[in-house]
Amino acid sequence: MLLWVVAALLATAVAAVTFSQMRWASHAVYVACAALCAAALGLLVLHLLAPDAGTSVRVLPLGLPWLGAHFRLDALATFFLIVVNLGGAAASVYALGYGRHETAPHRVLPFYAAFLAGMNLVVLADDAFTFLLCWEFMSLTSWALVMTQHRDHENTRAAYIYLVMASFGTLALLLAFGLLAGPDGHYGFDAMRAAAHSPALSGLVLVLVLLGAGSKAGLVPLHVWLPLAHPAAPSHVSALMSGVMTKVAVYGSMRIIFDLLGEPAWWWGLLVLCLGGISTVLGVIYALMQHDLKRLLAYHTVENIGIIYIGLGLALAFQTNAMSGAAALALTAALFHVFNHSLFKSLLFFGAGAVLTATGQRDMEQLGGLIHRMPYTSFAFLVGCVAISALPPLNGFVSEWLTFQAILQSTDLPQWGLKIMVPAVGGLLALSAALAAACFVKAFGVTFLGRPRSAAAMQAHEVDRYSLLTMLSFALLCLLAGILPGLVIDALAPVTVSLIGDRMPMQASIPWLSIIPITASRSSYNGLLVFVFIALSGTLAALVIHRYASRALRRAPAWDCGFPDADPATQYTAGSFAQPIRRVFGELAFRLREQLDLPAPGDIRPARFVATLGDRIWELLYLPVVRGVQFGAEQINRVQFLTIRRYLSLVFLTLITLLLVLAIWP
Amino acid sequence: MERLVFDIAHALAGGLVLVSFMMLYQDRLSALINIFAVQAVLLALSVAWQAYMQQAPHLYITAAIALLFKAIVIPVALHRIIKQLGIHREIEPVVGIGSTMFIGIGLVALSMVVMLRVTGNAAPVAREDLAFALSVILLGMLMMVTRRNAVGQVIGFMSLENGLVLAATGAKGMPLVVEISVAFSVLIAFIVIGIFLFRIRERFDTVDLSALDSHRGGQ
Amino acid sequence: MAVILDVLVQALQMALVLALAPLLTGLVRKTKSRLLRRQGPPLLQPYRDLLRLSRKEVVLADNASWLFRVAPYLIFAATWVAATLVPTFATGLMFNWAADLIAIIALLGSARFFLALSGMDIGTSFGGIGSSREVMIASLAEPAMLLIVFTVALIAGSTQLSTVSVFLASADVGMRISLALALVALIMVALAENARIPVDNPTSHLELTMVHEAMVLEYSGRHLAMIEFGGSLKLLLYVSLIASVFVPWGIAPQGGTPVEYGFGILSYLLKLTLFGILLALFETVIAKMRVFRVSQFLGAALMLGLLGTLLLFVSRGL
Amino acid sequence: MGAWAFDPVLMVVLIPLLSAPVLALLPNYKVSARINVLAALATLLAASSLFFVERPPPGNYLLVDDLNIVFIVLNTFVAFTTSVFSASYIGHELETGKLPAPYLRFYHAMYQVLAFAMNLAFVANNLGLMWVGVEVATLTTVLMVGIYRTPAALEAAWKYFILGSVGIALALFGTILVYMAAQPVVGEGNNAMLWTVLMQNVAAFDPALLNLAFVFLLLGYGTKMGLAPLHAWLPDAHAEGPTPISAVLSGLLLNVALYALLRYKLLLAASPGALAPGPLMMIMGLVSLVFAAFMLYRRRDIKRLFAYSSIEHMGIITFAFGMGGVIANFAGLLHMVMHSLTKSAIFFAVGHVAQIKGTQNIADIRGLTQTHPLLGWGLVGGVLAIAGVPPMGIFMSEFLVVSSTIAHAPWLALPLVLGLLVAFGALLLRLTALAFGEPSGSTAAVKASYVPLYAHLALVLSAGLYLPPALVLWFQHVAAMLG
């Protein structure tokens, strides 16, 4: 019956094409999408909670003629479908308000519904062909969505890079499935599970999957398209792409690595761990350097994906050494972070979208002081920032805490490589957590606090109630997930059981709703108690002070050490805020070149300071490839301008070579 | 008697290969056309001889067509075109005459090796004919590749077809030989008319193909 | 009956922490001025300052938002909760199971997060300087702190502070190179976090050098009192953290008799005075570093932490 | 009249032949355009009736079996849709004065002669007859390419003619060699040239001679298919000829040569001794795939761009057939059908675009989805389909080809994937420039027939998701036959 919901989504997509010109079309389509996603969500939650939640398989006559299209709903798929449909429903409701300003609705509506349907189908697919079909269909629809403002060259370039990288990823996955399917082509997933794969083959498949799914999720060497494409799409779509599509990519890698491939080798965990570690640090450092709000959030997705892959790497490492308890913990941490990230990243993108509609600006250098004009949006954005920087009462901290607990299990790993790498990656994770906090202090501080830096920021106004409703409900969800982590962990148990065969200890029975990952003596954390503690002591202090000390309050111009300067330009901007960190990590991540030309004394020319950041990965990895292709095209292009005689000599040479081959060979 | 019959067929086919070599040697256009006419006559004789050997009367028609068309009509037409269009006399070969000849010998050797190894159990006459036919074809192509002049290329193409007709007649009992030779002669007629009709000479000042190439499609 | 006792002990812990914090700051100031042969403010001066500030009228900037007024209470509450979770005179208190070492560091992180935000709220350049430097220091201090936690947790086999201090107090831990490295790193991080001399001068108002002071420049009245109190609580937290982990002897075990609690409080007071004097001594001896030297200073702390974790496997092949 | 009147095979060949002279005589181009459409429709009906009526026994000259039924139906269908497109296209050409009236009569007559030649090549049971069919098809397209009389068109026609004739000559020599191989076993005369006879006792032929024959045939028909080293004529012929002819050229004529090659591969597959033709075809296929992929980058003329894309796809198809195995052959057949449908759809769109904007230069055409939404999105759909993006059919065939390559010959998978990716990048780059961005050039509404364009795209889209079981059984049977 879930397939009916997806079919309805596709129907709305087709319908949207026909009456996209109508005024009420955008309203109708988004309401339909929201309703369908909510229905799917309901069905899934029921399926998750139902005790005998067996896997239901459905075969349709579509797809490969002799195989048909297999769809399967098991624990892993249910969890990811919940994430997809939750994000989808929220984005659709958000779009009700945000969509009104859409200039070309006919370019957004049909692809939006198709995009949701595509994501649902990918998670449901149970054979290689349907999986890849829906995977690439998802990229195609999101490419079209990124292309909405196609007049701006920057968007078309971003969309082009995105679809080329997506096609590279699909081809890598195609090769992986080809290897798994074997010579006589058993493309069904269940056939792949049954078939025994040689370690060398499964090693190659792992690398291919990391290339394929990793490029879609945004692991570092392959992340280049993400910060270009995600901001280019309309905000509710970039929220979906960052919050949900990257999770579908994570689902893809998990389904293949944990489900289809058999016994993992030890170096798998090491490889995934290193990739995750590098992605976290580089992702957040790049994010710190941005001054375009949506691009900052997109780069930050790379960091969170890195954290998820660290969790997966740990799970793989423990699984190879048959430490299933620790593996279950690591996997639950990764899945919990998937859920959290989809929550707060979508919330932050909604906030960025609200800022965009209110001020028409994405560049933080033009914003500032929005907290006074957009109180609710700024509160929701603040909750998002606190959650994403993994600060205690909220959900970001819980998943990071679980990952740290998993890292602390690393002493029992026999392989030296892992034993050394795991704490080192733990250090990287800690570094990126701190940098994330720095990044979101900058994002919130420069955008919402201080004085407005431009006229647009001056006349900002609060967004409509649909956007606010979604943002505040997601903020509440972040708080709930932070306070009651035990519930979420128990909900994740069937997923880890299906993938690894073991689960974290039962959390529901622990008193005071705290969570104990391994044993009570080892470590425990109680979100609710910490939150209640802070709230109580804060209000207690405020009451005592107001009651017994003074309540007097007076407004006056800012002190600013005695010489207040009203010009907003004196405030710290995004660039200057990140300057100390840029200086510390400058050379590491990008070729930092700072030119400062001070005019000679007496010369009234203004001093200029230019800091240029080169993106090392783009220059070392992508430019050589592009130049190589251009060179190849240039050389081969000469064949186009030969004379007839030379073409004839080409034919003649081929004939002679073939005859020679025949003369020599048989 | 059997020996003599085989020897004559062998001599005629060998003659054809020899004439192809002579065509490679020519550096003036009108001489080239005359040598081509000689080759056409030789082809007609060998086809007629094959007809006599295989008692296949329809081959006589092919011999007649070869004689009439290729030996007489087309060379005369080409001569008139050269005079009327004022195409300049000498042919600028791309590769020197000496090296072309050298390559030609190599090609003949290759075709001998390839053909004789392959047609192990066919009739001796057929084997001979096919081997010579393949060498005439390869020499024809060599001619087309090494000549800048459009007419030179056309003659190379026509000698290539002579090789084909020789091969067709060599294969005993092959049906449709007549139809194929007719088709080819129609093809050649097309070429000649094409040159005349499109007035390659007038539209591009020289018939040198490099002038033609400047108009090849843009990017 | 036992539950009431536990609640009482926990309440005692919370009250004790509140009371001792300003005392420790006063002690440090007193010893520093004494070392400089000055009379120095009396020991109880911080209490009077706090009372005076909370009675004064709050002067708010024009464009200060609600965050600016809520932040001080949040900072104070977070630091107070973190301080109560660190075992001072007794381990195994009722609420210790609510959060472990990582959670305490993260609580401090959220306090710092709100402090930096409030620094940027008024939109003055000093607030910006303070926040951006604070955040740069934090981006190195927090990972160093977490690596120290790794070292300690890997040795003690748990991140729960009570179990750690009980384990380290017991004899079977033996001398460890990584523990020594962790201690040095912890001291360096504590100096950075509490804005003590080598990293930032708590007393000076020189615009270019100050980090912590720059953020709280705009605060006045009771808000400033809250933040000052939070600052001293944080200092107390770090001192009691060092004491409970590296000098664990004398802490009362779980559910101990009142005598053990009394002995625990005594030993805790002794440790506080000892560390206060040591800190004052250290501050008078060393001069303040340039701001961008701080990143090497904290980089060294990070390396020490990482080295400590890696050396773990060498010493006893854990 | 009675017996053979209802023999659909003969009808398929005769209708175009009879309608050609009729069209040549009609002065008014509107009437001849409609008759052209009617004739194509009649041939289509005759061809599709082959499905239902039981197949006539293989005659002395005509043969219908599983392999060529697919080709015939596809061929007649695309010929019909192209004739519908050319009706509206030619009208416009007359108005803009690019083609004087008498030439239109010649154009329509040649169109039907071409249809006749192609159908003849498909149904011919006799090797020679098939060769003649291909030869006549080449001649007609040469004349069509040169119809505009511009220097570039002439040069393209001349180049096509010379290269085509050399190719055909080589193919003839190959046919003669096959006859030589058959002659000692089957005896002289006609039946040494019949497919049915050859197939039965190919085992007894001398394998070495067959190999040599296959080399010549591969080169001969390879030139007609536009494989890499022999492809030179194809881009210019496409760019200079009228667009319906480009559609026919890349949609149908390449398939005729492919069909011929498949026939001979069938022959060789049956004879045990012969050297496997597979590796030869795979190498040629790969070379043309990678070559065409890199050539796509520098193209500035829109029709030449899609000509190279045809070379690329012909390379993939040859590679698939070269690899052999049921899956790869099935993929090759499916890819061939999908390619003809999609490529002709693209040329329909390109034809109208070139007419509106008055130029074929990619740099001058921008923002199509903005100015002409129907045409623009049709072009986007077509190009994405040809680039192998999933919902469309080509993705399924590429999926099968790549996954069976990695399974059978993993070291070949790398160049294949490289070629596909580079081609995808180039096509997408050009599409983004064409369909999106600031609109340029005239935005006059075009009186275009969108029916053929969207009919083809709908077929390709539905094939991507669901293949009717009857069609699938066929393909699998033919794939098994191909070995």
Strand proportion of chain C, as a percent range, falls in under 5%
Name the chain pair with the biggest interface and residue counts per chain.
A-C, 86 and 88 residues
Instruction: Please identify the structural class of chain D as seen in this structure.
Output: mainly alpha
Q: Work out the helicity level of chain C.
A: over 70%
Mean pLDDT of chain C: 84
The N- to C-terminal Cα distance of chain D equals 40 Å
What string, H for helix and E for strand, traces the elements of chain D in order?
HHHHHHHHHHHHHHHHHHHH
Helix content of chain D: over 70%
**Quick one: biggest sheet of chain C?**
none
Q: What oligomeric state do the depicted chains represent?
A: heterotetramer
What does this structure look like?
The complex is a heterotetramer of chains A (666), B (219), C (318) and D (483). Chain A has 25 helices and five strands. With 666 residues, chain A is mostly helical. Chain A has three domains: 214 residues, no CATH class; 201 residues, no CATH class; 68 residues, no CATH class. In chain A, the strands form two sheets. In chain A, strands 1-2 form a two-stranded antiparallel ribbon. Chain A has a two-stranded antiparallel sheet with strand order 4-5. Chain A is globular, with a radius of gyration of 27 Å. With 219 residues, chain B is mainly α. Chain B has one domain. Chain B has nine helices and no strands. In chain B, helix 1 packs antiparallel against helix 2. Chain C has 318 residues and is mainly α. Chain C has eleven helices and one strand. Chain C starts with a helix and ends with a helix. Chain D contains 20 helices and no strands. Chain D folds into two domains: 275 residues; 206 residues, no CATH class. Chains in contact: A-B, A-C, A-D, B-D. At the A-C interface, helix 15, helix 16, helix 17, helix 21 and strand 3 of A face helix 2, strand 1, helix 3, helix 4 and helix 5 of C.
Q: Descriptors for this entry?
A:
heterotetramer, B: 219 residues, mainly alpha, globular, D: 483 residues, 2 domains, 78% helix, 0% strand
Concise synopsis of the structure shown:
The complex is a heterotetramer of chains A (666), B (219), C (318) and D (483). By secondary structure, chain A is mainly alpha-helical. Chain A is 69% helix and 5% strand.
Blueprint (SSEs and pairs):
The complex is a heterotetramer of chains A (666), B (219), C (318) and D (483).
Chain B: H1 2-25, H2 29-54, H3 58-85, H4 97-118, H5 124-146, H6 150-170, H7 177-198, H8 200-203, H9 209-213
Helix pairs in contact in B: 1-2, 1-5, 2-3, 2-6, 3-7, 4-5, 5-6, 6-7
Chain C: H1 2-35, H2 45-55, E1 58-61, H3 66-85, H4 101-121, H5 125-156, H6 161-169, H7 177-193, H8 212-215, H9 221-246, H10 258-285, H11 293-316
Chain D: H1 2-5, H2 8-25, H3 29-52, H4 66-95, H5 101-123, H6 127-145, H7 151-186, H8 195-200, H9 207-225, H10 233-240, H11 243-270, H12 278-295, H13 302-323, H14 326-357, H15 368-371, H16 373-386, H17 393-408, H18 410-435, H19 450-465, H20 469-482
Helix pairs in contact in D: 2-3, 2-5, 3-4, 3-5, 4-5, 4-11, 4-14, 5-6, 5-11, 6-7, 6-11, 7-9, 7-10, 9-11, 10-13, 11-13, 11-14, 12-13, 12-18, 13-14, 14-16, 14-17, 14-19, 14-20, 16-18, 16-19, 17-18, 17-19
